[in-house]
Design brief:
Length: 278
């Protein structure tokens, strides 16, 4: 097993020296633009202690060693470089997929981000959604499933039917390709049957993109008991599906409208610019 190397720490030291040598030559914005380029160049620079370049150091590892190196970095608190992450991301080895069952949330977070919307990971992702995991982890997993919603659709339909994490399943289904009546009927049913979730479920219909939802949305937005937040989301959904709603509405007495208007106003005593004495 190769030793752990803090390539990011090495880069930071070299960068500090370089910035000191070139002090005053570049603006802060120019430095911000240069640093990623310098980091990329560093990845192809020979490092004596590694007997390789940072990129080459990880490229020479087999899949198991590469994943184990990530595990050791996290356990021994050695910064994980982008060079290691990119090698894992490009290969997506089975050993990395195995970390999706890790009880270590830091490792699990790394694995989700590096595996991405790779369909082979979806069974593990759905297990995470159904299990006892941190909300941020579940949100990250849901984002990956949404990115690959067509591949995730059948399992999402199955779990929705079983009542497992229905909101997550609706969110995933809403990102699948339009044309499946099963998905459309579910999204429409949830919109009609959950009056307390109108904004969210309207957004699912908008994301799905089936124009058949327009008559239902237009009928609902025209109701006098629609509040301002619901109205805004319904109007967005209607326009996203190619429709239009033009009836004038007065929300001046609506609590949501009043609060939003209050927060959007400048302070009553906003200081005026001082006039020049010249």
């Amino acid at each position: 097993m190769k030793k752990l190397i803090d390539f990011d720490g090495m880069f930071d030291e070299k960068l500090a020296e370089y910035m000191e040598e070139n002090a005053g030559k570049y603006t802060e914005k120019q430095w911000e633009a240069m640093i990623p380029k310098l980091y990329k160049k560093f990845g192809d620079t020979y490092v004596k202690s590694a007997e390789n370049t940072p990129k080459g150091y990880y490229a020479a590892m087999d899949d198991e060693e590469l994943t184990e190196t990530l595990v050791r970095h996290t356990r021994e608190n050695v910064p994980v470089s982008d060079f290691l992450c990119r090698e894992l991301e490009n290969r997506k080895p089975d050993s990395l997929l195995g970390l999706l069952k890790s009880g270590d949330e830091q490792l699990l977070s790394f694995a989700v981000n590096l595996v991405g919307s790779f369909p082979k990971a979806f069974p593990a992702y759905f297990e995470i959604l159904a299990g006892e995991y941190d909300g941020d982890i579940k949100d990250a997993v849901a984002d990956q499933l949404k990115a690959g919603a067509d591949d995730a659709k059948e399992r999402a339909l199955e779990l929705y039917g079983k009542g497992v994490q229905r909101e997550f399943m609706l969110e995933i289904l809403s990102r699948s390709s339009v044309g499946d009546d099963r998905v459309f009927d579910i999204l429409l049913k949830e919109f009609r049957s959950t009056p307390d979730e109108i904004p969210m479920h309207a957004s699912y219909l908008a994301a799905y993109g089936d124009e058949r939802a327009l008559p239902v949305l237009l009928d609902y937005i025209d109701r006098d008991d629609v509040n301002y937040l619901e109205f805004q989301e319904l109007k967005y959904a209607i326009e996203a599906l190619g429709g239009e709603y033009t009836r004038p509405r007065d929300f001046s007495d609506d609590a949501y409208f009043i609060e939003i208007a209050r927060q959007s106003q400048l302070p009553a005593e906003f200081p005026e610019e001082k006039k020049s004495d010249a």
